[in-house]
Amino acid sequence: MRDVIRWKHAALLALAILAAGCSSNSKKELPPAELTDFKPEVALHKEWSRSVGDGQGETYNMLVPAIENDSIFAADVTGVVMDLNRLNGDVIWKKDLNTSVSGAVGVGYGLVMLGTISGDVIALDATNGEVKWRAKVNSEVLAPPANNGDVVVVQTQDDRLVGLDAATGTQRWIYDSTPAVLTLRGTSAPLVTNHLAIAGLSTGKVVAVDISNGVPVWEQRVAVPQGRSELERVVDIDGGLLLSGGTLYVSSYQGRMAGLDLESGRVLWQRDASSYAGVAQGFGSVYVAQANGTVEGVDERTTTALWSNDKLARRQLSAPEVFSSYVAVGDFEGYLHLLSQVDGRFVGREKIDGDGLRARPLVAGNMIYVYGNSGKLEALTIK
How far apart are CA 241 and CA 245, in angstroms? Predict the structure, then answer.
C-alpha cells in the first residue's frame, strides 16, 4: 500500500508542479507564456520522420532514445522497440515486447536495455532485437539502465541501485538508500564508467559506488531540503547526469546545479537553480532549463549567468541540448526552440509534435533528433 500511495503522490506532484510553473509561492496558477514573435536567423529542415508506437503514453514517462554509431534506438510505453538508421530513418528491426515500458532506452556493448513499471529489466540483442535476458528488481524502473560491458546498473524509483551481470542478468549487488518522503515521478539515469556507477537521488545527493560490488566510494549533497512542508522540501535529482571529461554536471529541483569531480565527488562549482529536466554543456558554459521555464547560460568558471531567457515561462521545458552554435529545448506544445549560445536570443523555432516534447533532444553529427510525446521521432538539420 505504501508503494501505491507513494506513486500517487509522485504523479500528482509532477502534474501540479508542471501546471503551476513550479512556483510553491503562487496563490493563483499562471498560464504558460504565449510565444513571442522574432525574426528567424536559422531554419530547421526535416530529414526524416518515423512513428514509434504510442510514444510516452498517458503517464508522465520520460522515454529518451539512444544513439550508437549509425543507429538510433527508441521505445514506446507499450513495449514497441525500434532500431532505425539515424541517417535516413530506415527501420533496421522492430520488436513488440507487449509490456509497460517506463525506463528507456539504454544502449551499449551489444545490448539495448529497458525497464518496466512492474520492475522488470529487459536486455535485447542490439543487432536483431531478440531478448537476451530478463531480470526482476524490487521497484519500478523510470530511467534507462546503463552498461559498462560487465555490469548493467539499474536505478529504481525507491532510490536503490542494482548491479546485474551484463551477460546473464543475474544480480551481483544492490545499493540501498532511503528515499525522500515525497518525490517527483522520475529518476535520473545512472552513469557508469569502468569502475564507478553514479546516480542522483531523491534526497538531493549524488552517490558513486564501486561498480564491481556496489560499495559506496563517495557521496555529495547537491541540494539541502528547505521549508516547512514536504512539498517545499522536495529536492529530487531527476534531470539526467552529464559527464564531460572528469566533470560530472548535475541539477536538482529546488536546489542547485553543480559541477563535481568524478573521482572524488568534490564540488568544483555550484549555483542556485531549480530544474527537473537537466543541463547541457559546451564551450565553457552550462545551460539549464529551470523548472519555471527560464533558460540560462552559465559560465562554469565564475558561476555567473551569461544570459537568461524567461520568454518560455511555465512551458514545461525539456532538458536542453547543445546543437551547433545553439541551445535546443522543447516545450509542452511540441515546439523545438533554438537559442543563441552567445546571448540566449531566439534564432529558430519548429513545431514537431502537438502532444508536446518531453524527452531531451539528441545530437549526433549535423543532426538533431526529437522524440515527441505522441511517438513521432524526427531528424532535423539546420539549413
Answer: 13
